[in-house]
């Protein structure tokens, strides 16, 4: 019997903080619905106190999505928590995510405070949020650089105050995998009452370690991971959802499963990339253009003899099923529509589809084969109002 790992997606909060990636409410609803289809357990829909737009997006996502828990971020401030609760009023399942920095540099430079005061502040915030909702997640910002003994005291106190999930962010992406794994292990072994809460990872990728750190967190007992589609997020980004989901699928013997329908990964990746104007690097694991392309002669020869020689995953398992429908100047509207859908762009309006199709025919006449990037470029201007 496998153990369950909960997927907390923060594409619409930590991911959307990136300059140039901002989405309007309609676009956020589209992404949230796609995340629901993908099978994520929790959608962090925004930071409601930060702007009326963010508040409104959390309200509308709460109405549009039924299955996943909707989570709203707050600082450890009563006003933030009041506003977060208000924004979640239509959510079927709601969570407030509150917290503050616990590393010495945050305590000293951000708060001009001391460890005892910060601990009391954390407890008060959790108790305050608990008046509104049962499901309260606490984050210890910069936990990656927080002294383990003090971190354990804070985590123990917030669990006693009612936190149901405790988030251990490596906010600056500083940790090495072994250190991050040991931090989670330390908490598992030294926090009284840890079994009453779920430990969550939240790793940033400044040293390219986000996925490795998250994985070490899982191995040492974390049962929720905070991730984004394509690994987007502040600076070098967050842990990529698709990498964690596929690591666990490829290594079934670990006995840890998610609810992710991996065949929706590619579609979701393309949707987020095109709506956020954030291209995916070609060699990005799982979803990059070259992730399943074999170009050297030796590899091609091997793959033609048996795909297992150089492929550890079936591209179909991540929703890349495409070689069946290749676009050329002879392709019809249905094929174009199908390929756009695989790429996360749904065209419901026949007139719009026709406009894109006419542009496609002119373009395809000049090119032997039209790629996914080509059709996304062709559809770009005309799909804006569909999103
Ligand atoms: O990286 C971080 O510490 C965060 C918290 C606000 C959860 O994003
Ligand atoms: Zn973060």
Description:
This protein has 387 residues and is of the alpha/beta class. Helices cover 44% and strands 12% of the residues. It has 15 helices and 10 strands. Helix 2 runs antiparallel to helix 11 (265-275). It is globular and about 70 Å long. Bound molecules: 3-methyl-2-oxobutanoic acid and zinc ion. The site of 3-methyl-2-oxobutanoic acid has 8 residues, from strand 6 and strand 7. Residues 14, 139, 141, 167, 169, 171, 202, 204 line the site of 3-methyl-2-oxobutanoic acid.
Side-by-side strand order of the widest sheet = 2-3-4-5-6-7-8-9
Low-confidence stretches: 381-387
Mean pLDDT: 93
Instruction: Give the percentage of residues in beta strands.
Output: 5-15%
Brief characterization of the structure:
The chain is 44% helix and 12% strand.
Q: How is the secondary structure organized here?
A:
Blueprint: E1 3-4, E2 6-9, H1 11-15, H2 25-38, E3 42-46, H3 52-64, E4 69-73, H4 78-87, E5 94-101, H5 104-110, H6 115-130, E6 136-141, H7 148-160, E7 165-170, H8 177-190, E8 198-203, H9 210-219, E9 224-227, H10 241-250, E10 256-257, H11 265-275, H12 297-305, H13 333-342, H14 350-366, H15 372-383
Parallel strand pairs: 1-10, 2-3, 2-9, 3-4, 4-5, 5-6, 6-7, 7-8, 8-9
Helix pairs in contact: 2-3, 2-11, 3-4, 6-7, 7-8, 8-9, 14-15
3-methyl-2-oxobutanoic acid binds next to β6 and β7.
Pathway: Amino-acid biosynthesis; L-leucine biosynthesis; L-leucine from 3-methyl-2-oxobutanoate: step 1/4
Domain Pyruvate carboxyltransferase: 5-266
Family: Belongs to the alpha-IPM synthase/homocitrate synthase family. LeuA type 1 subfamily.
């Amino acid at each position: 019997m496998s153990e369950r790992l909960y997927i907390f997606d923060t594409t619409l909060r930590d991911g959307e903080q990136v300059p140039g990636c901002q989405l309007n409410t309609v676009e956020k609803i589209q992404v949230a619905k796609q995340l629901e289809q993908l099978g994520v357990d929790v959608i962090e829909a925004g930071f409601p106190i930060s702007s009326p737009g963010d508040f409104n997006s959390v309200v509308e996502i709460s109405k549009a999505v039924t299955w996943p828990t909707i989570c709203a971020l707050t600082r450890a401030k009563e006003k933030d928590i009041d506003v977060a609760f208000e924004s979640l009023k239509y959510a079927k399942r709601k969570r407030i995510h509150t917290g503050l920095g616990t590393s010495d540099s945050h305590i000293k430079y951000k708060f001009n405070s001391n460890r005892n005061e910060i601990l009391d502040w954390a407890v008060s915030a959790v108790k305050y949020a608990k008046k509104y909702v049962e499901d309260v997640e606490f984050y210890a910002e910069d936990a990656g650089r927080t002294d383990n003994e003090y971190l354990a005291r804070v985590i123990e106190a917030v669990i006693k105050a009612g936190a149901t999930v405790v988030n251990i962010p490596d906010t600056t992406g500083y940790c090495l995998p072994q250190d991050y794994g040991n931090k989670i292990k330390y908490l598992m072994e030294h926090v009284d009452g840890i079994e009453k809460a779920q430990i969550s990872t939240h790793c940033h990728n400044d040293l390219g370690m986000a996925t490795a750190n998250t994985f070490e967190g899982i191995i040492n007992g974390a049962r929720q991971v905070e991730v984004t589609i394509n690994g987007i997020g502040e600076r070098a980004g967050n842990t990529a959802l698709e990498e964690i989901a596929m690591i666990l699928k490829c290594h079934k013997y670990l006995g840890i499963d998610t609810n992710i329908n991996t065949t929706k990964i590619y579609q979701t990746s393309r949707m987020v990339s095109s709506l956020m104007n954030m291209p995916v690097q070609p060699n990005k694991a799982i979803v990059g253009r070259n992730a399943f392309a074999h170009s050297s002669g030796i590899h091609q020869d091997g793959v033609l003899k048996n795909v297992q020689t150089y492929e550890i995953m079936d591209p179909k398992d991540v929703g890349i099923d495409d070689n069946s429908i290749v676009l050329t100047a002879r392709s019809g509207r249905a094929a174009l529509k199908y390929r756009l859908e695989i790429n996360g762009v749904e065209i419901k309006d026949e007139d719009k589809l026709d406009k894109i199709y006419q542009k496609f025919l002119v373009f395809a006449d000049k090119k032997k084969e039209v790629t996914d990037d080509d059709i996304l470029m062709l559809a770009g201007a005309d799909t804006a109002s569909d999103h």
